[in-house]
Amino acid sequence: MARVVTIVVDREFGERLEPLTFRNPVWIVESDPNRYAASIASHKAVDWPQISVTVFRFSEEPTSDEWLSLLKQLDIGQRRPFDTVIVIGTSITEAMLTAFEEAGFQKLEETAEGVRATRQ
User: Fold this and answer.
1) In CATH, which of 3.40.50, 2.60.120, 1.10.600, 1.10.20 is domain 4-118?
2) CB < 8 Å & 24+ apart, contacts of 111-114
């Protein structure tokens, strides 16, 4: 069974966060709307302990080093290893591709919302 983590880099994602939090852990880029939505989700985690939301800082055009650093933080921050990352709010960039390959992801594919990366 795939272990999935979602990364949201859309700074205006806000209210759309809640449904994601019930599916898998979510890391969401810091912005006013996202920080507010994350605080609401964190309050719900009292009753729904599977909810896990982490707010992080990221540049508008992240470098491969920034992507790799984020992926390393995900590895450290998750209770169980993950093999799939869903990235919402971007398409595949050279920096992303380089970092994900270095982190052991063999497959990156574009989706309607962004990118899906998998490793074995």
Assistant:
1) 3.40.50
2) 111/86, 113/86, 113/88, 113/89, 114/9, 114/86, 114/87, 114/88, 114/89, 114/90
